[in-house]
Every structure is written in C-alpha cells, then in structure tokens.
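Example record

The entry below shows one chain as it appears in the dataset: sequence first, then structure tokens.
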Amino acid sequence: MSKTDTVSPPSGNQQGPDTARFRAALRHHPAGVVIVTADVAGEPVGLTATSFTSVSLTPPLVSFYVATSSTTWPRLRLADSFAVHLLGEEQADLAARFAAKGADRFAPPTRWTRGAGGIPLLDGGTVRLVCARHETRLIGDHWLVVGEVTHSQVHADPPPPLLYHQGAFGGFTALP
C-alpha cells in the first residue's frame, strides 16, 4: 500500500437491498464514461470507468472508483499520475475495449501517444485531464481514487458525451 492509500474499517451496517437488487436499482442512473490511462514501468495501463466526478475546484480534484476485483487495478495503483479521458458518443467501441478483461487495450485500432511522464494519451474524446494521484481509499468493495488535475485539454468542437445507462452505451440529446 502506498503512502496515499487508506483502508477504512467496515461500517457494520449490513442492512439494505441484496447486491443484485442494488445493482438493478443503480442501472437507472445514467453515467458519463471515461477511460483512465497511466504508465507503469514503461507499460501502458488503462480501464473504463463510469464513476467519474469532480470533487473540488480549489485545488482542482477529480475522482473515480475501481472495483477491488479489477484485474487492472493492481498495476494502475502503482502510478503516481494518470490521465482521464472523457469520451464522446462515437467512442463506445473504445470504452468496451478498455472494459474487457484480457484485451490488448492499446493495440490497434486504439490511437494514442505518450505525453509528459510517458502517460498514454488517447486520441479523440471531449476532454483530457492529466492528474497527480492525490489520495486513494478503500471504501466497501471499491477503491476511491482522487487525482489533482495538473493539465486539462478540451478538444475543439467536442462531440456529445458517451453515457452508460441500463447496461448499454448511448449518447445525449439536449431538450429543446
């Protein structure tokens, strides 16, 4: 565990819906889709997340959650910095590739380059945030990862965002 990792004891509150019912209930909440990438010992690592959110403006902090069962987390947690890519609605295939177990996520057709510190930067999307890891905390069966944004880039003429809702990817249409 790194110096920024924190493990909280269980709350002891075991009441509430069973796991399947809880998951079914949460499927009704749409979420934005991001891909988190990092460099670990010269190798690119990345995953898809739908738990991304802003935390603070001063300092600029963002967060996402990773399941303890993630096969990517043991490597990703070693990174001191990472990039968060907010995806556009045309990037559902990319989101699915980075969510798949055992996939070579950085192989073609994924288009990417290395940024400062070797961080893999994906082409496309709507926004890219480069972050220094600020804090990591185990909460329930997920790791909360908080990053301090050190650089942000909003792509010119960004597409509508990619959303995840009821087990499927989709787009967003504003109401008139």
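Notes for this example: The chain has one domain: 32-164. The first helix runs from residue 19 to 26.
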